[in-house]
Design a protein that fits this description.
Layout lengths: L3 H6 L2 E8 L7 E3 L16 E8 L18
Antiparallel strand pairs: 1-2, 1-3
InterPro entries: YdjO (IPR025916)
Pfam family, one: YdjO
Organism: Paenibacillus nanensis
């Protein structure tokens, strides 16, 4: 049985953007944020912040598929 401290050990300080609107709970990791910092939910302004989150596993870039032969 794993304890809650084991899952907390996997968390890393992560840069995020969170919505400034107190009624909106939206946030997004900095690496996935759009160039314009508008809330994806309410379209309000976003504020840079930090949050302890599990790391995201980056997928290896897939090779482009070769076009199917017409023959």
């Amino acid at each position: 049985m794993t304890s809650s401290t084991d899952s907390k050990a996997d968390l890393k300080p992560t840069k995020i953007w969170k919505c400034k609107n107190p009624d909106c709970k939206a946030w997004v990791r900095d690496e996935f944020a759009a160039d314009e910092q508008l809330c994806p939910i309410c379209k309000g302004p976003m504020l840079r912040s930090m949050r302890h989150l599990p790391p995201v596993q980056k997928k290896a870039k897939s090779q482009p598929r070769k076009p199917k032969s017409l023959f």
